[in-house]
Write a structure and sequence with these properties.
Length: 170
């Protein structure tokens, strides 16, 4: 994946969108090296409305500092989740803010992109495959495959979309 992305890795700061037909197919494995690096650098990892409760022993087993992990439950109103994500993206101690929104709104996504740039943070939105265009710097589509995960780069700032790879062993 790093070879496909301009700069050899996740753009920072930026808003990334990862689309998949379902969750729990290995999508977080793509972010584990960044998570590990950020927690050991003293930056916060924030999970907003994850579809599953993150399993602390598994995260610790992957080398994450659990003292730097924060989970925010699903807010009742979408606006509260967007507000939370925007504030966290702007905060200088945040390293990675991930959210699983019910739906995406282009105006809000633009604000999140600006917040990530202002805070020097990586924001990741997990959405379904039916999502429309967004201002995300990188947009990936994932699908489970017999030998791991198929990943298609739909969009990337500073490069060309359309590349596809298989990531095995997830």
């Amino acid at each position: 994946l790093d070879r496909l992305l301009p700069g050899g890795g996740w753009p920072l700061p930026a808003l990334i969108e990862i689309m998949a037909p379902t969750w729990g197919i290995g999508e977080l494995s793509l972010l584990l090296p960044a998570m590990r690096h950020l927690t050991h650098a003293g930056r916060w990892l924030v999970w907003i409305a994850p579809p599953f409760v993150p399993y602390a022993p598994a995260l610790a087993g992957q080398g994450l500092d659990l003292q730097r992990v924060l989970v925010v439950d699903r807010p009742e109103a979408d606006a509260d989740g967007w507000w939370c994500m925007e504030k966290l993206l702007r905060h200088p101690s945040s390293g990675l803010v991930m959210a699983w929104p019910r739906r995406l709104q282009t105006v809000v996504l633009r604000r999140l992109q600006l917040a990530a740039e202002e805070g020097g943070t990586l924001g990741v939105l997990f959405s379904g495959l039916q999502a429309g265009p967004t201002p995300a710097a990188v947009r990936l589509a994932l699908a489970p495959s017999a030998d791991g995960l198929e990943l298609r780069v739909l969009k990337m700032r500073g490069g060309f979309g359309g590349a596809a790879i298989r990531v095995g062993g997830l």
